[in-house]
Write a structure and sequence with these properties.
single chain; 277 residues; Rossmann fold; 2 domains; eight-stranded mixed beta sheet; alpha/beta
């Protein structure tokens, strides 16, 4: 059976929602796979949120391997330099993670779901990993907050959510799947007019994330994240998308620039979005 590895730091409810969404789809046989194991970069007692995640995994009967990156770093006397360069201790930590996972069958696919560490080149090569990014394939980089401010600054016509292969270059791996949605028309146009003549810095200072356009863009993006993860995992399991020599290919073994799930995701989120004010 197709096997999945799950990597998380389990910082909050969102991480639990991601796990539950995929596992429930597995239990109802919509996704014909099994989550082989979960790796957590925190340990029991390190965070109440992580403890809740471990409890959830236990109810599903999924093995959990926990190893604190904070403890690993402190025990070896490393300080956080604040540099964008991956420090040596992170590479050593990755090696230790891989060693601790050797007792499990090599997963066909690993999902980074709220995993707060940059993955080093050795682990990228060892596992086939995908990660969620809150933007369209040609959209901005950064956190979801940074993405939205950039969309507002450029007066973008659309946004999206995507998954991509994890590579040593952060958020630059080949696109695995994506969905896009318009951020003009309907409720959006009136919200854009409220900020006419202002750039994102001015809006950020005056309103911050309470800005109504910011919140509406986030609402549409966030609603698509869980369905995209579930639909992407299913697409891998069903053979609609695969990885070959670092490329994303379709079931006919043709290279593609990501599997477009926009229509399917729109259908899944329409009722939820229409019901919210």
């Amino acid at each position: 059976m197709y096997s999945i590895g799950w990597f998380s730091t389990a910082k909050g409810q969102g991480s639990r929602n991601l796990l539950a969404a995929v596992q429930e789809s597995i239990l109802c046989r919509d996704i014909k796979a099994t989550i082989e194991c979960i790796f957590l970069s925190r340990e029991p007692g390190e965070s109440s949120e992580t403890d809740k995640f471990i409890e959830l995994a236990s109810t599903y009967g999924i093995p959990v391997v926990s190893y604190s990156y904070q403890r690993y770093r402190k025990e070896r006397g490393y300080l956080d330099s604040g540099s964008n360069v991956l420090p040596d201790w992170r590479l050593g930590y990755d090696r230790e993670v891989m060693r601790r996972l050797e007792c499990f069958t090599q997963p066909d696919l690993c999902v980074l779901a709220g995993y707060m560490l940059i993955v080093g080149p050795e682990m990228c090569s060892h596992f086939t990993m995908i990660n969620l990014h809150p933007a369209a394939p040609d959209g901005p980089t950064g956190t979801w907050q940074e993405v939205i401010w950039k969309l507002i600054d450029t007066k973008a016509k659309s946004s999206g959510v995507m998954t991509h292969l994890v590579t040593p270059e952060l958020d630059k791996g080949p696109v695995a799947s994506f969905c896009v949605f318009p951020i003009h028309g309907k409720t959006f146009d009136a919200l854009w007019k409220e900020g006419d003549g202002l750039d994102s810095n001015a809006v950020n200072i005056s309103e911050g994330e309470q800005n109504r356009l910011f919140q509406e863009i986030r609402r549409h993006g966030a609603a698509r994240e869980l369905p995209l993860i579930v639909s992407t995992v299913k697409a891998f399991v069903d053979g609609n998308i695969k990885v070959s020599k670092g490329l994303i290919i379709d079931r006919n073994n043709a290279a593609i620039k990501g599997y477009d799930l926009s229509v399917a995701i729109d259908s899944l989120v329409k009722t939820k979005l229409d019901a919210q004010p």
